[in-house]
Structures are given as structure tokens and as C-alpha cells.
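Q: My collaborator sent me two sequences in one message, no labels, and asked for predicted structures for both. Can we handle them in order? The first one she listed is below.
A: Yes, handling them in the order given. First sequence, followed by its C-alpha cells:
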Amino acid sequence: MSLRSANIERIDGGFFDVLVVGAGINGAVSAASLAGRGASVALVDRGDFGAFTSQESSNLVWGGFKYLENYELPLVYGLCKSRNRLMKAYPGNIKEIGFLASLTYDAPYKPWFAGLGATAYWGIGMFGTKRPRVFDAKEVKAEEPAIDTTNVRGAIQYQDAFLVDNDSRFVFSFVRSALEAGAAVANYVEVVSAERIGDRWVAHLRDTDTGAEITTSARVLVNAGGPFADDLNEQFGAHTEHRIVYSKGIHLVVPRLTTTRHDRVLAFFDDTQRLFYVIPMGRRSVIGTTDTRVDTPYTEVTAEDRQFLLDQINARLDLDAPLTVDDVIAERCGVRPLVVTRGHGDQTDVDWTSLSRKHEIERDDDRAVVSVLGGKLTDCLNVGEEVADEVQALGIPLEKDLHSWYGEPAAQTRAEFYRQARLMRLDSLRSKPDTEPLSDRLWRRYGRRAFDLLEAIRADPAMGEDVMGSADYLRAELYTAAEAEMVVTLDDFMRRRSKIDLVVPDADIDDSEGLREVATILFGDDAERRLADYRAAKRPRQGAQ
């Protein structure tokens, strides 16, 4: 029996303290926090873990420097504090990074004033990063020759952090934490209906992959539906003082744009005076994001979106040739669920662009529902802790929070892994230029489970081979994903457990002999069907480009 099937069997007919609906970052941390403190927890999502809003982020862990414009100092302080906690808890996954912000003559701030803001930001962040710096135009060109400094007055560099790997995999780390603490978790399980009967919720669920219907019960529901939170609350009959509105953001993944260091973010003001970025992603660069008000969480990249970002970056970088649509390797498009109070009418343009990524957690005592509205990846630990407090207020006893539900393994465990990796000369298995050491990647992605990968490679050297050429994924990792990562569709692996779809051109994937092997390892006899589904789903996306 697969891990997913075993968990669905646990959920079916079970009675839990808490049923968490939605397995994006908010739902994953809620389940991890609650299970880590002794609650019996079930976590379900109608799609894959981290498959909607949480897979479309900028991969940045930041304190909200731009929120200083609106004097949201408590929010900035809280986000900086969260950023510092995450950097400390996940040293292999979350790294400090510089943001080099170029300021043209028509930018809203002069370099000296932006430098004051950056210094204030550093202080609000409790000096948890390197100090900010101010540059003149000549120094900007020396720091990054790719920047066109023709109209640049100067620049500042302030510090924040970023996810080295992809956002969905970080979400999955909390799902694994919940699972290891005893939670029952399942992707592709939707809530068909839920009713409050006596002291419990009875939820009717459907496995969207097989069509099987199951029933489960819980004392408390946690609504972590992200952009669908309002719809879920309507289904549950729960009431909140806040609601969600949507802002669409897109990113374009292109070949690496920077010519010198690739360990910092480049920031620019676009023609509408909104910040956008060039973010490192391995051997690629990510351009984004935009901010467009929309009325639905279902969005796509339009030709206008794409051309806008390409025009903005071509006007600000000194490239050998302008970027075109043909240079776009992959696209990311999603909505930010932004929180407003109910009764808040249509926002003006000024109100809209000033809305922050704060979160609100509300408790409906009569319905025993805790709702998580808004938020962002940076604030995830706070969300997990606050949800636990609200669940406890509804009468679910929890153990003391020992903070064991998040973070990487202890330093001693890490040191032992690297010792074993050195003894078997793990890093010598790869000779590709401009790629991180294999030992770093395996530790970051798998933590304690990385020891099992070492054992597999010792037993069979073929397990240490890449399966898809430029994808940088070992055969041993595929077997781990098949056994322990609840991969249901090929897209789950290509887009979320890994980031192959984000960094490898579609043509290289389709032509790769390793793609069929990937499907075979993951799905066995079902490989052909899953492979056909994956290719069929990609065709509209390719046509859109």
C-alpha cells in the first residue's frame, strides 16, 4: 500500500481533533504546529500540496521593505522577526541575499533618502542581516555591469533572504513534519460537504484521483483555503470580519541575466513606479512580479503581461540582445490573497496597490472554525503558532510548544551527513559548471532522509546518476519521491517536489530519454497514462507562449 493510500485509509472513518482544509503554506504549517503539540490532525487539499498560490511565489523571504512607504512599522517588524527566525531554523534552505535597487533620475526616491530607509529597515529587523550600502552610478556599473546606468542616479543595497529551492518543496517540508508527528495527510482529496453535528464536524470527502468517497469527523475545522477561504467559510456557515481580494502577479524564468555575481536580487522601479526584481534561481533568472487587480483566483499570463515585463527589463539592463518571448523558459502566475474588512467597497488604485500581505486569523466559536486569511510565506511560523492558540481556545488541549515542528535537523546530524558524504566523495559524482555541490543539495532537500540516499548510492552507483541530463536530479531521489512524497501526477514531481519544469525548457524535457524513466520509477505500470496526462496538460501552456 502506498503512503498516500495508507493515509486516506486513516482519514476514512477517523475522528480527529482538527481537520485542516487546504495544504498551501498556511495549511501545512497549521497541521505541523498542531500535530507537533499533540493534537490528532487530518490535512487534506483538493489539489497537490502547495499547488496553487504557494507555488507561484517570488521565492523570497523578506520583511516587507516596501511597506515602510505606508508606515506599517509593526507589520515590517513582525515580518523581519519571522525572516530572522526562518534563516536561523533553515540555514540550508533559506539564505541571506542582497537586494541591489537601482534608482533612476525619475525614481520616487533619491539614493540618500532610500539609504536612510534601508538603514531604518536594518534596525527594525534587529540588525539580523548585513548592513545596507549606498552606491553612486559608477559603483553600480562596477557592481553589476549588466545594469544600464545611463539614467541611473545611484543605488542602495539592503539585505533580506530567499529560498534556495522552490517554494512548494518548502511547503512540503511542513507536510512531512506533520506526517512524522502523527498527522494523516492526503493530497487530491476535496471536501464535498461538511455539517456540524453535536460536538463535531462530519465531512464528506472525495479522492479526486480515484473518485472514491470517504467520510471523516473532527472537533474543529481549520480553513486554510488561501484564495478560496471565503468560499469554504460560506460552505461551513462560518463568519469572519475580513474577506479576501485578489492581486495577480506573474514571473518569467529566463536564462541567467547577471554577468558577475549571481547571489543577489536586482531591483528596479517599473514605468508605473512599482518595484520589480531579477531573482536568482540556480542557472536561471526570474523576472517579476506584476500587481494587477483581478476578481478571480484563476489566472493566466497574458501576452500583455509577458511583454510588459520583457519591455521593463530590456529598458533597464545592458544586454547583448533584448529578451524576447523565445527566451522565456517558464512562467509563474498566481494571485495574492489580500485581506480587507467586510463592507470595504472597491478600492481606488492608491488603496489597492498599498494593500499589504498581512494575515488575519479569526475564530468562529459557534461553528468551531478557525480561518486563516491572507499572509505570505515569510510569516508562516507565526501563522502556525497563532492557529494553535485559536484551536486551543476552542477546547482542544495542546502540549507545550517546544518548536520541534519546524526547522532543519541539529548541527551534529548535519555534520555527520557531510562527513559521510566526504568519505564517499559524493560531490565528485558531478562535474557540471555553475552548480552547487551535490552534498549541499541533498541535505537541503531531504535532511535526515539524505542518509538513505547515501546508502542507496553506496549500494548501487547508478543511483547517483542524473536521470534527465540538465535537470540535476538523481535516480535515487526519484525512488525517494515515489516512496515518501505522495506524487500522484507527473506535474507534482516536475513542478513541485522538484523545479525541473521551471528551469529546463519544455523542448529539452520532451526530448529527454529520462522523462519516461522518471514516469516509470514514480508510477510503475501506470507510467504511460501519467505521462500522457502530463504532456496533454502542457500543450495549452506551450501554445500560450
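Q: And the one she listed second?
A: Here it is, processed independently of the first:
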Amino acid sequence: MSAASTISSASVFEAEKRDFVELHEDVSGSPLWNEDLAPTSIAQRTWSTWNIAALWIGMSVVITTYTLAGGMIAAGMNWWQAMMTILLGNTIVLIPMTLNAHAGTKYGVSFPVLLRASFGTRGANVAALSRAVVACGWFGIQTWIAGVALDACFGTMWSGWNTTLSFSILGIAFHTWLAFFGFWGIQVFFIVKGLESIKWLESLSAPLLLGGGIALLWWAASKAGGMGLVLNQSSALIPTTAKNVDFWKIFPASLTAAVGYWATLSTNIPDFTRYAKSQKSQMFGQALGLPTTMTLFAFIGVAVTSATLIIYGEPISDPVVLLQKFGSIPVVLFGTLIIFLAQLSTNMAANVVSPSNDFSNVNPRRISYVQGGLITAAIGVLMMPWKLLEGQAYIFTWLLGYSGLMGAIAGIMICDYWILRRTRLHLGALFDTKGLYSYGSGWNWRALMALVLAIAPCVPGFVRAITGAKATPDFFDGLYTYSWFVTFALGAALYALLMRGNPSLKEPEEAFH
């Protein structure tokens, strides 16, 4: 190696080291501190570009992604319009994702700890618990979907599964409950093992999940006579009532839903990037893993569903139902393994890590990361996901509804960190109950007011989406259609306005590490 290249490598290393801030003062006596919420040390920041990319592959390859484009096609889009909408939505959400991720990598802080800078040391719990409730709902839904999928697969491999365990509890067969709580228990095992076990789960599962998806696509294309025939057949998936629907009428809500799919992660991404090796690792890892995998797996869902029209004479959009069509036990067993890993890797990363930290942040001295995870798992069951899934308008209610809440939080966070503080944080003060980010009483009323005012214009449209009652002008329905974009912009603008001249923004330079 030449002297020039050695100097160049050293310069890059030093530049990356400047990306990191490490906490040197002892704040362990603070009631806001515990070992799980403490900033990661530089030695703990070991996640590479592959680890971050694998995280997104593991979270994106899931049954709900497989069926996401199908919902757009059912509304009237063709296959390539649905793909472009999903790609655009995930590219858009990548922007706040990488912006919020920066603080995690630079300061080693988790999502609820970062929230203290904008919402206050106590007010952070409002935003964090809002995120946690959404995660609990998702945890329950994904666990139920996985349980039903595994239940069907077990029944295919062993006929006695359905007949021996057929008695009902609450109107649901016992074998379904058994599969559901079996999968739930496996997730609890990973929760107890901690975040490092999730890192290895994602990294090891990613190649298998991608391989399984591509193998399914190859099977569909070869059995149906080629990809050209498959894609031509996709037009048959559009219902007769939606064939003449104007694309531009359904595009806004579908795009917002595509953004909303990962709106939650765009706020709590510091929970993961606090372990990243560098800003380059987190940015490239996310760019490689998120939009590409989401679009690819959504395309696989559309292509395979279209192929089933040719192969079986009917569209089969549920991968579990399709798996039951295969007669070979080894194939069904392999497919069951893929579904198991897909649901497990998604749920553990997307719907456990954040609420575990969020619940821990409520009382760091009494609630650890593991205890927060167990609370998440319990609430996920108590929210009765089998009821949430009954007749739910998946795209236009669930995704749109919470995307508005997440958009406002993301807007406030990004405005605070990038525009007002210009990426400078006093790391120790994040754990000081009477310090810079306490705002006197622990509550930054400006952030809370910006949050409420940003969400308010979208509430009428959300109420109508839930109840179906035409009680608001079309203007508010239009705002709700763009809910994430509306609340993100309003949250950032209102917060910037309300924070003008705030003393916490005029702290001397030496106060920042």
C-alpha cells in the first residue's frame, strides 16, 4: 500500500470518527438513565452496511408487503402503476428515515432519548407512547397473520392437526390459538435475548428470504408460460367496478399509504442506527435495503397472483393458500419456514425494538428493554388483532390514519435536530431532569402544541374514514388523503415558529460535545 493511500485511508477513518460523539460524563444516577437507554459507546457501534440492509430486507419480506400492491390494483391501478407508487413512496420515506437516523449514529441515542431534545425530558413520553401504541397494534396483527399462516401450513402437512384440535374458544379453533401463541412465545424468547439476537436473526434470514421470494417468482413464471404472459394477465386482477377508475384519483391515497407503511420506522430508526459503524453505513444500508426490497417483494406478490390465474384458473393473493396447493411435503415445509422467518424478522425489528425502548423511557429505573418488550407482547394480544383485521380497510384506514400522527412527530424531530440545532446536541443534558432539555418542568409545550395543531386538520377525514359518515367538507377529506405530507410540513413549520428565540437554542458552543 502506497503512502498516499495510507494517508487517504487514515483521513477517511478520522472523518468517520468525527461522526461519532461518545458520552464521557457519568449520568448513571439520573432517573432518566438505564443501561438500555444509555448512549452506545463507539465500541458498540458495529453494524455494517450489510447489517442495516439485511435489517430492511428482513422487515420488508412479509405477507403484508406481498399483498400491498394487490390492494392498489383492486382500487384500479395496473401492475406497473402500483409498482411505481410503492417505489416512489419508499423513496420518499427514505428521506426522513436517513435524516432521523443521523442522530442515532452520531450520538448513539435511541428514539425516546432523542425525543427529549424537542419534546422535553418528560414530554418525550407523549410522542414515544404514541409510536408504541401503533407498534403494539402492528405486533398483534403480524403475530396473528403468522399464527393463521402457520396453522394452515401445519394442517397441510398433518391432517390430524385440524381434526384433533378442532374445538373452539371464542369462536376460533383451538389449533389456530395454538399456532398463534406458539409464534407469540418464540418472539418472547427473542425479546428476552435482547437486541443483538435480532441483529443476527435479520442478517441470517435475509439471504433465505430473498432466495425464497425469487424461487417463487421463477416457479410462477415457468408454470404460467413466461413473465410476459403473467404481466399481461395482471389486468384481470382489476375488479370490473374499478377498471375505469382515474389513476390520479387513487394515486394520492395510495402514495400516502406507501409512505405510511414505514412512517413509524422513519421516527424510531435511531433505535437501530445507534449501532451503525458510520453515517455511510446507515445511509447506504437503508438505500440498498428499503426501496429495492419493498418494490421487489410487492412485484413478486402481483406476478405470482397473476400467474395463479393461468395455472389454477383463479387468482390466489394469499401466499399461505397458494402454499397449500402444493402437494409436496418438503416444498410446504420449506414454504412454512420462509413464512415463519418473514413474519418473525419483520415483527421483531419493526414492532418490538421501538416500543420496548418507549415503555422503558416512561420509567427507566423500573422498566428495562426486556420488560418493555414483554409489555409490548402482552398489549399486542390484548388489542385482539383478530378483531382489528375483521373488515379493515387496510390501505385507506390503518396506514393513512397513523401516517398522519407519525408525519407530525417526524417533522418536529427533523426541524429540531437539523434546522434549529444544526445536528448539535448536549448529550449529557438528555439525561438531566433540570437541564437544557427539561424546558423547566420536563415538558416543551411548543412541541406538544405543534403536534396537536399539525394533526388537527386531518382528524375530520380520519373520522369519516372510520365511520363512513359524510360530516365534513371535501377539503378535509383531501387533507386526510395526503395526511403524512400535511402533518409533516405543518409539524415542522409550527415547531420552528413556536421555538423562535427559545433559550435552549442559544446555549454556548462549549456546551455541546
